[in-house]
Amino acid sequence: MLHELIGVNNNRVELAKDKQPKEGEPEYVVSSHDDKFFRENMFVDFGVLANNTNTALNEYSEFKKKHEKVETLGKYSKTHPCLLTISLQSEEMQKVLDSIPELRQKSGNISKHVTLTCELSRLVEERDLMEISRVEQELSCKENKSEHFNVKDLFFVG
After folding, report:
1. Between the CA atoms of 136, 123, 27 and 61, what dihedral angle is there, to the nearest 10 degrees?
2. Cβ-contact 32, 42 below 8 angstroms
3. How far apart are alpha carbons 117 and 36 in whole angstroms?
4. Contacts of 71 (CB under 8 A, 6+ apart)
5. Residues near 76 by beta carbon (within 8 Å), at least 6 away in sequence
6. Are 155 and 81 in contact (CB under 8 A)?
7. For 12-21, 57-66, 96-105, which range has the lowest pLDDT when averaged over its residues?
8. Largest Cα–Cα distance in the chain?
9. 7: phi > 0 → left, psi -120 to 50 → alpha, else beta; which?
10. DSSP per-residue codes, 89-115
11. Which of 32, 45, 128, 153 could form a disulfide with 39 if both were Cys (CB 3.0 to 4.6 A apart)?
12. pTM for this prediction
């Protein structure tokens, strides 16, 4: 779907309005080798993709909340040093420090996929692809040929 609606060139997606991207416009790398979310969702339909993106966003929010809670304790403990030893043991602090790169990576990854899903959603709505899909489904499943001509007239009038 991403390849058909936006275009993928050398595992890169450019969201430029025209074909010549300007300096500073976002370019996203999508690779089934490096990107687990892309690998798991590259062949799913739009509805499943939207649900999976929402689920990934919720998981990231939960991960970030846990990280922020520990970070807040760390900030508060700077004003009250005795709280640092009470609230956060050295092992917990090490876990927090180790999770910072993972948080940054997840943030960039979820941001990329939410942006791409929003762009796909915009294009699906703009091109009325859900309605076209519905009509295609009706044409392939209904046997009454006279109804097919009525459906055809909806799209090819004027």
Report:
1. -100
2. yes
3. 16
4. 96
5. 83
6. no
7. 12-21
8. 81
9. left
10. -HHHHHHHHHHHHHHHHHHHHHHHHHH
11. 32
12. 0.70
